[in-house]
Amino acid sequence: YVKIEPQHLGQGQYQLSADEKLLKQKLALVVRDRVSLIGADLNQASKHLLQYICGLNEATAKGIVKYREEHGAFRSREQLKKIKGIGAVAFQQCAGFLTVSNPEEDSERGPPAKRAKTMEEWCPLDGTIVHPDDYKTAEK
After folding, report:
1. CB half-sphere exposure, 113, CA atoms < 13 A
2. How far apart are CA 110 and CA 37, in angstroms?
3. What backbone phi and psi angles, to 5 degrees, belong to 10?
4. Are 30 and 2 within 8 A, CB to CB?
5. How many Å separate Cα 33 from the centre of its chain?
6. How far apart are CA 42 and CA 80, in angstroms?
7. pTM (global) more than 0.85
8. Which CATH number fits domain 39-139: 3.30.1780.10, 1.10.150.310, 3.40.30.10, 3.60.10.10?
9. Beta-carbon neighbour count of residue 29 at 10 Å?
10. Which of 53, 60, 61, 65 has the fewest Cβ atoms nearer than 10 Å?
C-alpha cells in the first residue's frame, strides 16, 4: 500500500513542478488498482482503504468500521447488507474485493464471545476473493 501523502511526493528540487491535484488522482487510482487485485479484509481494513473498494464510498466505509466497532468482527460477507448504504447493487460490486478472515484464528481480537455477537457462521470461501454468487460453483 502507498502511504505517502501526495503533497509530500514533490518535496525537494522539483517540488514546484508537481501538480498536487494530479498526484492525488494518481494515488487514488494506484490504491484502487492494488485493492482490486488483492482485496481487503473486512476485519482489518481501515476506513481510508475501504473507500477505494468498488461499490463503496467514504460514508459506507465509515459505516463498516462503525459496525465492526459496535458488533465485533465480521463473520461473513452477508453482514455487509446490514450496513446503511450497502444495498444489493453495492454488495454485488464490493463483495468480490472484500474478504473475511476467520475470527477463530485471530487471537489478537480476544475470545470468540467478544469478537462477534451474531450467530452467523464463517465460511472458508469468505476468506477468498471468490464472489458469493460463485460459491455454489466453487463448492462443486
Report:
1. 0
2. 30
3. -95, 10
4. yes
5. 13
6. 9
7. no
8. 1.10.150.310
9. 11
10. 65
Residue 113 C-alpha cell reads as 464471545
Compute the distance between CA of residue 43 and CA of residue 119 in angstroms, rounded to an integer: 17
CA distance 75 to 67: 12
- Tens of pLDDT, residues 29-84: 888 788 777 789 999 999 988 988 888 999 999 999 999 999 989 999 999 999 99
Amino acid at site 107: S
Contacts of 12 (CB under 8 A, 6+ apart): none
